[in-house]
Amino acid sequence: MEFSALKTEVYQLAGVSSTRQLKARYQPLASLNLRLKASWEKALDFFQANPVAQPAQIKTLSQLKSEVYALAQVSTPQQLKAKVEATRALNFSQKASWEKALALLQADQSFQGWLSHPPEEYKDLFAEIESATTDLNKSLNKAQRLGQEAREMALSLEEQTAEVQKEAARLRQDREAARRLAQQAELN
């Protein structure tokens, strides 16, 4: 096979258009000296032996943005950062950040799908967790109710204490007034 035909076939199999892209995307090929026909033959052998190594269709920035926005159900990078905490550190002026955001959202979506239809061995575990959560919520509600009752009792006791203190003060005043009257009656 001619050198140029060999090179073209490798580029097609790799889904790239330059030697730099080829070496950047495929680490096993990074050490090859692609000025030599033998190296291109090794690259061709690599792609024929590893068809899985071919990348998926390369997406444009606008395709990445639209997929990320659709998955996150937002329309701006600011909304995305507010909704998905893992994207807050990303710089959305770079295509790599959009690729990372897409990977994060797809992973989250596949996990949510797994949660909605877990394997059988996890269903019992999830049922136990759900039961424990329900019991905990009931206990928390009871504790809150008891706490509210205790606060109401404390307020009632404070009110009664205030009333008793007022009554005690009134009785002291009455006793003092009675003592004065008794003294005045003795003097007369």
What does this structure look like?
By secondary structure, the protein is mostly helical. The protein has helices at residues 3-14, 19-25, 37-49, 61-72, 77-83, 95-116, 120-187. The protein has seven helices and no strands. It has three domains: 3-53, no CATH class; 61-116, no CATH class; 118-188. Helix content is 75%, strand content 0%. The protein starts with a helix and ends with a helix.
Structure characteristics:
rod-shaped, 188 residues, mainly alpha, 7 helices, 3 domains
Quick summary of this structure?
This protein has 188 residues and is an all-alpha fold.
Secondary structure: helix percent: over 70%
Mean pLDDT across residues: 88
Number of structural units classed as domains: 3
Quaternary class: single chain
Radius of gyration: 40 Å
Low-confidence blocks of residues: none
Distance between the termini: 142 Å
Query: Biggest β-sheet: count, sense, barrel?
Result: none
The backbone outline, from C-alpha atoms, is rod-shaped
How many strands appear in the DSSP assignment? 0
Q: Tell me the series of helices and strands, N- to C-terminal.
A: HHHHHHH
* Content of β-strand: under 5%
Structural class category: mainly alpha
